[in-house]
Every structure is written in structure tokens, then in C-alpha cells.
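ZP: hey, is the magnesium ion complex queued? I don't see it on the tracker
AM: it wasn't, my bad. submitting now with these inputs:
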Amino acid sequence: MATIVELPLETYAGPVEPDWCPGCGDFGVLKAVKMAAGKVGVAPKDLVIVSGIGCSSNLPGFIHAYGVHSLHGRAVAVASGIKLANTDLTVVITGGDGDGYGIGIGHFIHAMRRNLDLTYVVMNNQVYGLTTGQASPTTMKEMRTKSTPRGNVELPINPIALALVSGATYVARAFSGEPNHMAELIAGGIQHKGFALIDVFSPCVTYNKLNTYPWFKQRVYKLEDEPDYRPSDVQAALEKSFEWGDRIPLGLFYKDEQPTYEDSEPAFRLGPLVRHKLGVDEALFQSLVEELV
Ligand SMILES: Cc1ncc(C[n+]2csc(CCOP(=O)(O)OP(=O)(O)O)c2C)c(N)n1
Ligand code: SF4
Ligand SMILES: [Mg+2]
């Protein structure tokens, strides 16, 4: 196993300061992503952060690494392409609940069942923040929002349960009020070979007046403090994923070692695609470039 040389937080300091509302949970996530990258010692040149659209999806602009601010709901698809083109890169997806669990849910499920080696950090604030507070797929039932003035009639998606049944091999939940704990979970996800979901309670202090920091602080507890909890037991993880109310679990729900898509797909036997010979001569290559660019 290669020796890890940890890197300081400043390694990832971006040139642009975040423009999130003061107190937004996404500040804690940005810090935790930088801490996690430093813990696993990934240099900015080997790190790609991919997002969709939303307040949370602005994160790649605030960190020193390669970044793609893609289309709404397409972050997982873009990240899949990047990872498959160059399996040597560390690819981290960052986005919101609307982006990932709404418009992007198809990509999310298929990436998990393929067990692509990606780390997905979802800043789950249970609303559409950027578009000023409409209900999202994780908004609690009966909550009043701009788009549900008489109360939300839909059941929220359970991202942890969905990830478990879709084949994700690392499933965790964190809270912006605990950035050190979150950084450990994200670092674990980056080091894990396979699809890692870290769903993060990242309060929107402007548009979600229900799921606030105090609301979570009163309820959250850590699975690692439960003496009998084992993250290798998928049934136990599923049971815990439904715990919601007075007590809400944080931490590593589930981890399993399974072959990744990249390990299983014969096209990768000769190494990352970017290093494969194209199999076309220089003249043909140039004519293709001229035709396409
Ligand atoms: C195809 C498309 N549909 C809708 C939108 C409008 N839109 C932008 S961000 C967003 C929701 C963002 O919510 P979330 O992903 O939870 O991010 P947050 O702002 O809460 O961090 C929507 C609906 C869009 N940009 N593109
Ligand atoms: S609107 Fe909400 S999610 Fe967006 S920056 Fe402000 S607090 Fe954060
Ligand atoms: Mg949101």
C-alpha cells in the first residue's frame, strides 16, 4: 500500500471566496472536502470536482483543483465520463438534493449499480436553494415551501436506503455542524474503491426554517458510538436508514468491497483510456480534428 503524505488545507485554497449566504451549511462541506483531500494526500492536479447546478453546485469554483460546473442533474454523468477516460484521477461529485435526487436521479442509480469508483457528496438541504426555496425530493411531508404553500403532500426520497438497494458500496451520512466527522467520512469515501455516497445535512439558513442546525443538533447521533453496529451488515444498514424523527443516525451505514466497473470492464485492461493508442495514423487524426473542432 502506498504511503499517504497528508497535505495542508491551504493546498486547496481557491482564488474565489464563496458567495453563499452567511451560515449556509455548504461552508462546512467545502471545508470538509478540502480536509478530506488533504487527508488522502491527493494533489490538486489529480483531483477533479464535478457539480451540477444549484447553490451547492457552485462548490468547484471555490476550491483549487480541476473543476466542472456542468448541467443541472448531469454531474454524475459528466463525472462518469471523466473517470472512465482517466481512471488515474480522483473524481469527487458535489451537488444538491434537487440536482442529484431529482432531475439527476437516473444517473445516480445507474452509477451506483455499476459501482463506478466515484465519491458523491450531496449537500442535502431539503429545498431548492438557488431558485429560492421550492420543495425538493427530500423536503419533509407537510412542510410549507414556496411551491407547497399548503404543505408538501409527497413522501421524501430516502437517499441512504436508495443507495443501499442500488448497489453503492460505501454509504454514509454527515452533518455540516460536524465538519471533522464529515471530513473523515469523505476521506473514507475517496479511499474506498467503488461508488461512495456521503449524504450531508447542510442547512439552507435562508429558505428552510424547519430543518435548521438546532433541529439536527437535537436529533443526530453517530453510528460508531453504537457498540453493536457493524457497517458490513446491509440488513442492519437498511433498518438504520429508516430511522427518522427524535433520533437520526450519522456516520458510515455500509461498506463492502466489490469489483468496480473499471476493474471489470475489459476495455481498461491496458490501463486508462487516455493512454491507449488511438489506432489511427497522424493524417487521419488531423483530418478528424479539423472536421470536429
Ligand atoms: C434543466 C434545468 N431545470 C431547472 C433549472 C433550475 N434550477 C437551477 S438550480 C435548481 C435546484 C437546485 O436545488 P439543489 O440541487 O437542491 O441545490 P441547492 O441550491 O439547494 O444547493 C433548479 C430547479 C435548471 N437550471 N436547469
Ligand atoms: S439560499 Fe440556502 S443553500 Fe443557497 S447559499 Fe443561501 S443558505 Fe445556502
Ligand atoms: Mg437543495
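AM: back. The chain has one domain: 20-292.
ZP: great, adding it to the tracker
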